[in-house]
Amino acid sequence: QVQLVESGGGLTQAGGSLRLSCAASGSIGIINSMGWYRQAPGKQRELVARVLRSGSTEYSDSVKGRFTISRDNGKNTVDLQMNSLKPEDTAVYFCRLEEDWPLRQYWGQGTQVTVSS
């Protein structure tokens, strides 16, 4: 019932910037969190950043100081501004929405981020 549409992935050079966006639509209930995860080939999917219902944000240590997450509750969107990108940031990035009442989660299809050099 909930659909997540991602945009903004692409290719850039080391030190470059990209902005990811995720828009949620459908029968959305209470949202516990919205955020971004990533998965590189042969690696586990890991949290990049998320926004909790309280408005608090959480970041992976590897992206602190470089990435900024923001959520617009009225639009049901979450954005990830990625600066000073490194080759190790290369991965498929997935948007995730965690819902309560009922408790369940939804995932986007994923968008490729590639950082060269």
Description:
The relative contact order is 0.33. Helices cover about 0% and strands about 60% of the residues. A hairpin with a 3-residue loop joins β9 and β10. The protein has no helices and eleven strands. It is mostly beta strands. The model has no long low-confidence stretch (mean pLDDT about 95). Strands 2, 4, 5, 6, 9, 10 and 11 form a seven-stranded mixed β-sheet that branches. Strands 1-3-8-7 form a four-stranded antiparallel β-sheet, with no helix packed on it.
Distance between the termini: 41 Å
Can you give the mean pLDDT? 96
Tell me the strand percentage band: over 45%
Helix/strand-derived class? mainly beta
Low-confidence stretches: none
Share of helix, binned: under 10%
Q: Count of DSSP E strands? A: 11
Radius of gyration: 14 Å
For the largest beta-sheet, the strand count, sense and barrel status come to: 7 strands, mixed
Alpha plus pi helix count: 0
H-E string: EEEEEEEEEEE
- Broad shape: globular
List keywords for this structure.
11 strands, four-stranded antiparallel β-sheet, 117 residues, mainly beta, 61% strand, seven-stranded mixed β-sheet, single chain, globular
A few lines on this structure:
With 117 residues, this protein is mainly β. It is 0% helix and 61% strand.
Topology:
Layout: E1 2-7, E2 10-13, E3 18-26, E4 30-39, E5 46-52, E6 57-59, E7 67-72, E8 77-82, E9 91-100, E10 104-107, E11 111-116
Parallel strand pairs: 2-11
Antiparallel strand pairs: 1-3, 3-8, 4-5, 4-9, 5-6, 7-8, 9-10, 9-11
